[in-house]
Design goal:
The protein has helices at 40-57, 62-78, 80-91, 95-118, 168-176, 189-205, 222-229, 242-253, 275-280, 282-294, 313-328, 337-351, 380-385, 406-415, 428-431, 435-442, and strands at 6-8, 11-13, 19-24, 29-36, 125-127, 141-147, 151-154, 180-183, 213-216, 235-239, 261-264, 270-273, 306-310, 357-361, 374-379, 397-403, 419-425, 445-450, 489-495, 516-518, 521-523. The chain is α/β, with parallel strands linked by helices and 527 residues long. The longest helix is centred in the N-terminal third of the chain and has 24 residues, at 95-118. The radius of gyration is 25 Å and the shape is globular.
């Protein structure tokens, strides 16, 4: 049952005076639920509770925190059809997508639980004392990762489950030992409230301290700004626009005590079309990329918004086939009228440019808020001269750049901003001839792909979901996979510390049985 209220730890609160509604983009109507904007009092209360909870939660064993994460996954599943129906109403996305994303969210929680149960993620490193060393004796030095404190997580618009209330940022922060305060996304506040109720139930069920999790509603920017600048908040996770992420980053770094703001933002995800791919597998790649461009109405951070190839018959034939495939696919609802409006504005701005040609688009009438897919093309020279074409248009649009030669293609890659992904289609003998292209692409992206599509981010230890600015605010870190936990910790070094007072991870007898680096050698043996 959705109340529209805020979760301040285990307490349900409606202290604020302002309210708002969510919107069903498919029916083009507001939903029946009314949500209360979090007040200043509620914000302070949530952060105070989180700081208090941190003192206890950071001491919990990995096994106990793992039990909490597994309980969250179970309670999310226990919400059943109500959660799925709320998701589809607030997002316009189909039931199949909701079920798949719920499964991914539960999988992320369980994956971090497994990480905690194994325990080696803390990077325990030990260099034992050498008191007889001359001329200077060596003291006992040990190091491990520890949590940094309360974290604010901003729910994303395009993933109401996997990058929102119990998504990757929340799961990784809780796994690290950090309490979380979620600023729920206003487009799916009802979905967020249901998931928040599951987290609170799991916290109570597993004996977590009150305040280990809170969920605050807001339709504007004030609540988010107040959270990021709150002196007791120690880190921020965000997935959204370049404008929003950069604003939060600036707030975080300009505080009296600066804090890390890990924001995933814009990306056009360039795809390099080598001749061998277009000559040998034209139909295959046209089908793959037509589906990738329109998947979820193009509302993926890894949507292939830019295709780059060498001018010629092979590229012309591919463009024709891709355009035919693209125009046959049925459009789908976008997430919100505002997102649809911004998409229409962006695609019209680029498609109306005198140097840009329309290859194909869906030509029939559409219901409100449906994304009309479009394929455009431009020369390499004109692309280089118009940086506005380099920017992401969030939706089912892709721009094909036709280059005169390899040098121009390489120059285009160097002209791009940082990206989440970069893809090359071709065969192995040919790709070896394009070393400069590969090197240029690698310098711009967090994930480089060969003969596949960028959409679809596997949740596994080897995955890296990040990239140079403005793809993210810090290219060293991933928001997906086991390494996402590293964002919420810092190293602490213990010098000459008594064994009985060391964390279990650093004690000589290794009671946790974890893998550690002892005097330069990885081992799980006791010292």
């Amino acid at each position: 049952m959705i109340s529209g209220k805020n979760y301040i730890g285990s307490k349900v609160s409606a202290n604020g005076e302002r309210t708002f509604h969510t919107f069903n983009p498919k029916s083009n109507q507001i939903t029946a639920w009314t949500f209360y904007e979090a007040s200043s009092t509620e914000i302070d209360e949530a952060v105070d509770l989180a700081e208090k909870a941190f003192q206890e939660y950071k001491q919990f064993s990995g096994v106990k925190k793992a039990g909490f994460l597994r309980a969250i996954a179970e309670e999310i599943e226990n919400l059943g059809n109500e959660l799925i129906e709320t998701y589809t109403q607030e997002s316009g996305l189909p039931e199949g997508r909701a079920l798949g994303e719920r499964g991914r969210t539960m999988g992320q929680l369980n994956a971090f639980a497994t990480l905690l149960e194994e325990g080696s993620w803390t990077d325990a490193t030990i260099d034992t004392a050498l008191p007889e060393r001359t001329p200077i004796p060596k003291e006992d030095i040990r190091k491990m990762l520890v949590p940094i404190g309360p974290i604010v997580v901003f729910g994303s618009s395009n993933f109401p489950f996997a990058f929102s209330t119990a998504g990757g940022d929340t799961a990784s922060a809780l796994a690290a030992g950090c309490p979380v305060i979620v600023k729920s996304h206003p487009m799916h506040a009802g979905t967020g409230e249901l998931v928040a109720s599951a987290i609170i139930k799991a916290a109570e069920r597993t004996g977590m301290p009150d305040g280990v999790f809170s969920n605050l509603n807001s339709s504007g920017i004030e609540v988010g700004e107040r959270l990021v600048t709150h002196p007791k908040v120690k880190g921020v996770g965000f997935t959204g626009s370049i404008r929003g992420g950069t604003a939060l980053y600036n707030l975080g770094t300009q505080r009296k005590e600066p804090i890390p703001v890990f924001a995933e933002m814009g990306s056009v995800n360039p795809v390099i079309l080598l001749p061998s791919a277009l000559e040998g597998k034209k139909d295959h790649w046209a089908s793959q990329y037509a589906n990738s461009i329109t998947l979820g109405s193009g509302q993926f951070c890894t949507n292939p918004g830019l295709l780059i190839g060498l001018k010629g018959k092979a590229l012309d034939n591919f463009l024709s086939t891709l355009g035919e495939q693209l125009s046959l696919l049925d459009p789908s609802s976008m997430l919100h009228p505002n997102i649809h409006e911004n998409y229409e504005k962006g695609r019209k701005e680029i498609s109306s440019h005198e140097k840009v040609s329309v290859v194909a688009e869906f030509g029939k009438e559409l219901p409100p808020n449906y994304g009309r897919q479009q394929l455009l093309t431009v020369s390499g020279k004109d692309f280089l001269e118009n940086p506005v074409m380099h920017q992401e248009v969030f939706g089912p649009l892709s721009l094909v750049v036709q280059c005169t030669d390899e040098e121009e293609l390489t120059n285009i890659l160097h002209s791009l901003e940082g990206q989440l992904t970069g893809t090359i289609l071709g065969d192995e003998p040919e790709i070896k001839k394009y070393e400069k292209v590969v090197d240029a692409l690698k310098s711009k992206v967090g994930r480089i792909i060969f003969n596949s599509v960028p959409t679809g981010v596997e949740v596994c230890p080897s995955m890296f979901h990040g990239g140079p600015f403005p793809a993210t605010t810090d290219s060293r870190f991933s928001s997906v996979g086991a390494s996402a936990i590293i964002r919420w910790v810092r190293p602490v070094c213990f010098q000459n510390w008594p064994q009985s007072m060391l964390p279990a991870e650093l004690q000589n007898d290794n009671p946790l049985g974890i893998m550690r680096k002892v005097n330069g050698t990885f081992t799980s043996n006791p010292i």
